[in-house]
Amino acid sequence: MNVTNTDPPPPVDKAYEDAKRRARDSDIERRRQLAAQSDLRPEILYFLAEDESPDVRRSVAANTATPYKADLLLVRDPDADVRADLAGKVARLLPGLPPDAQDGVRKRVMEIIEILARDEATRVRGMIAEALKDVVSAPPDIIRQLARDLELVVARPVLRFSPLLTDDDLLDIIAGRHALGALPVIAGRQGLAEPVADAIVATEDTAAVSALLANPSAQIREETLDLIADRAPGRVEWHAPLVDRPSLPSRIARRIAAFIAESLLRRLERRPDLDAETSAALAKEVRRRLDADEDESGGPAAESPAAKAQRLQAEGRLDEEVLSEALASGEVGFVKASLGLLSGLTGEIVDKILSARSAKGVTALAWKAGLSMHVATQIQMRLGGISPRQALKSRAGTQDYPLPPEEMTWHLEFFGA
Questions:
Q1: Model-level pTM?
Q2: I need a surface site. Which of 31, 83, 159, 370 has the fewest CB within 10 A?
Q3: pLDDT given for residue 10 in this prediction
Q4: DSSP secondary structure letter of residue 319
Q5: What is the pLDDT of residue 1?
Q6: Is residue 287 classed as helix, strand or coil in its secondary structure?
Q7: Are 53 and 81 in contact (CB under 8 A)?
């Protein structure tokens, strides 16, 4: 006996059937609009993720309803705009995801981020870097990779803000290959530690040291500030941030007063944290400059550097203190003339030694002039153009010269002394 099935057929999902039809529409714009809908079934979006039109695939990439497998397909899309839209989407999703690393959704998003962080397109990597810059649960290896990116637009966000970069990471980046302009970005990090500040100063990067001095939260050793002050006479960019440092030792304030502009000198003089002795020294420097201005406007002719050196020698006052102050003030001509008088060498030989940028030659010149090794080191860096890392210094715990007298005599003879 045949039994007839009288159950009604399942209802047709008209919306789903319409979506399937539109997904195959010849009109790209209709397919693109469909791909942007957030109420589509996952299989429709997966189908559209392989659409021949990059505009359609971009809509799928930007759609938060797109299934994980479709995103994994798009992460290697040949069109950089598609990958950029995908990067933008995951960047927007990341802040709202739970911090639990075991969470399935978060793990899938992080997998996509790790792939995009290595993308060949700078724009894509930059979007990922911007998204991860302050995320404490981001993968540390991805943060370190982005920080070392040779494109500054990628490296900048994590170099400036990421809490995952350790001091060792920053020191390694400073010493190795990095994006052009990365050092000033590092110098601006909140609470920059002393070892990192030391490494930045050692690079002699003018913009980076300027950024370091302008960073009120940066921890800078007093010895490092001394070194900056040593090099500052010819680095005008450093003068204002030096004057405005939150904590400026009085002795450094007195040193920089000799070479900063008058407007900065007056600003320095108004600092309330300076001791009475320093304030008096700054006021004296202001008066000296006013007197010098009067001389230039009609007074007697200014004393030449050579004449000043000869006068001080005749008065018995051409000593280390005078030379140190002159070095800090950038009085190059006076220091050269003084070295000639004190060493008994001609100006031509003094110039030859200093222009050769030989640490040993300059040290021998200072020795011949009867100066201490401390001043010899200053002359190397300020007058001889020798970097702090290459400059000769006294033996640990002493003020002894690091070279024997016979070797220094040989270097002087090499330059014709």
A1: 0.67
A2: 370
A3: 55
A4: S
A5: 43
A6: helix
A7: no
Structure tokens at 22: 């539109």
DSSP structure class, residue 302: P
d(Cα 158, Cα 212) in Å, to the nearest integer? 17
The residue whose two tokens read 């290896």 is: 141
In whole angstroms, give the CA distance from residue 330 to residue 323.
10
Q: How many helices (H) and strands (E) does the chain have?
A: 26, 0
What parts of the chain have a pLDDT lower than 70?
Answer: 1-13, 98-103, 291-302, 396-397
Indicate the residue type of 372: S
pLDDT of 92 reads 81
**What is the rounded distance in angstroms from the CA atom of residue 350 to the CA atom of residue 77?**
66
Q: Give the position of tokens 């589509």.
A: 40
Structure tokens given for 389? 């890392």
54-69 tens-digit pLDDT: 999 999 999 999 999 9
- For 80, other C-beta atoms within 10 Å of its C-beta total 16
HSE, side-chain direction, 13 A CA sphere, residue 99:
3
Task: Report CA dihedral (120, 123, 124, 125) to the nearest 10 degrees.
Answer: 70
- In the structure encoding, which two tokens stand for residue 189, read together? 């990090």
Residue that is written with structure tokens 């001609």 in the block: 346
- The Cα 286–Cα 194 span in angstroms is 33
